[in-house]
Amino acid sequence: MNTIKQPHCNTKMIRTHALLHMAKSIHSIQAATAQGIEYPAPTINLADIQQTLDTLETQYYMASSTSAAKSIDQFRASNTTPITSTSANKYVWHYNEAITLPFIPAKLAVVGSGIAAIEIATIYQALGASVDILITGDEVFPELDKDINKTFQRYVKRLFKIKVQSEISAFTFTDNQIKLSVTSKNKALPDCIYDAVFIADDDDPQNNELTHPFMATSFPTVVWLGWTEKQLASSELNYKVINLPWRALGRANTDVNTNGLTKLIFNTDDHTLIGGGMIGNNADEIFGEVCLAIHNKFTADNIANTVHAHPTLHESILLAAEVYLGTATDVMNEV
Q1: 241 CB contacts (<8 Å, ≥6 apart)?
Q2: Distance in angstroms (rounded) separating the CA atoms of residues 108 and 43
Q3: Residue 204 placed within a domain
Q4: Fewer CB within 10 Å of terminal CB in the chain, N or C?
Q5: HSE of 261 in the Cβ direction (CA atoms, 13 Å)?
Q6: Exposed, middle or buried by CB within 10 Å (0-12, 13-18, 19+), for 12?
Q7: In this structure, are 41 and 186 located in the same domain?
Q8: Model confidence at 195: pLDDT above 50
């Protein structure tokens, strides 16, 4: 069987997030084109991207190492561990294979749900692949609530084809392609030929504890911390959910980012924030306020009386708290 090198977890993250940043840059250019600013189509130079990723890994290592005298060769040797590939075919990828960018497939199948599935789909779609996502259920993020999933799947319908309730009945290998036989919602789909298949069996899934943040740095970004409605349905807590669509924000309108959403969940007994997150481009940049508020048991009043700069996406958190309190002037309050 083939063996590959498994990067150290930190350098693995460096590669992934560097690639996601490249994907975001490509989408930003495309958004500008839609607004009347013309750019030529991007040229993808795989060798240059590989070199950039290798350089970033080395820079990260040199910045974090306690022994700056170590050579790059020592870095490579000490930060890789040989593992046995679970794939008998070089066109079937798991996470470690996918982030090495072996090639850019014309058509890629992503099998599975969750963060790894969506991030890999985001990267390869931006680099030019046509991507189908096959999930066994109805939601790409099973850990999160239906409204978050619905918003995300509506947001990305022009980027990916998401085939829900899917089952794969057969893999047929050729020399350089894979044919998948798939049913979706108990109906057989026409067999489809893919240049590569990514299996989303993340070996380091995110912890589902309430104190562990959920973050998918996709396009758009999805972030969450604390209780979800799914979890609260089986609890005895009294709560109220506030959804604040970003179309109410001036900043989101000027950034063509109106499909976003901020969602906060308050304990109605003491009015503290017990769950919250958002979906949208740059959602990760404002997520820290939600984390801080939950950690410190801030109330809706604490949030509403905190200055939020205008015009920013941060205002969505302020407005959601004001809606909960019934004091919002920019949007309709809850009744």
Answers
A1: 229, 263, 264, 265
A2: 19
A3: no
A4: C
A5: 20
A6: middle
A7: yes
A8: yes
Residue 333 lies in a domain: no
* Residue 193: closest CA among 207, 169, 177: 177
Answer yes or no: do 187 and 40 share one domain. Answer: yes
Q: Cα 228 to the chain's mean position, in Å? A: 18
Domain count, the chain: 2
The pTM of this model reads 0.84
Which is more confidently placed, 172 or 250? 172
Q: Encode pLDDT of 38-94 as tens digits.
A: 888 888 999 999 889 888 888 877 776 655 445 555 545 555 443 344 455 789 999
Phi-psi region of 223 (alpha: psi -120 to 50; beta: other; left: phi over 0): beta
- Determine contact, residues 250/312, Cβ cutoff 8 Å: no
Are 75 and 181 part of one and the same domain?
A: yes
Please name which of 244, 252, 265 lies closest in space to residue 330, comparing C-alpha atoms.
Answer: 244
Asked if residues 110 and 120 have their Cβ atoms less than 8 Å apart, the reply is yes
d(CA 227, CA 231): 6
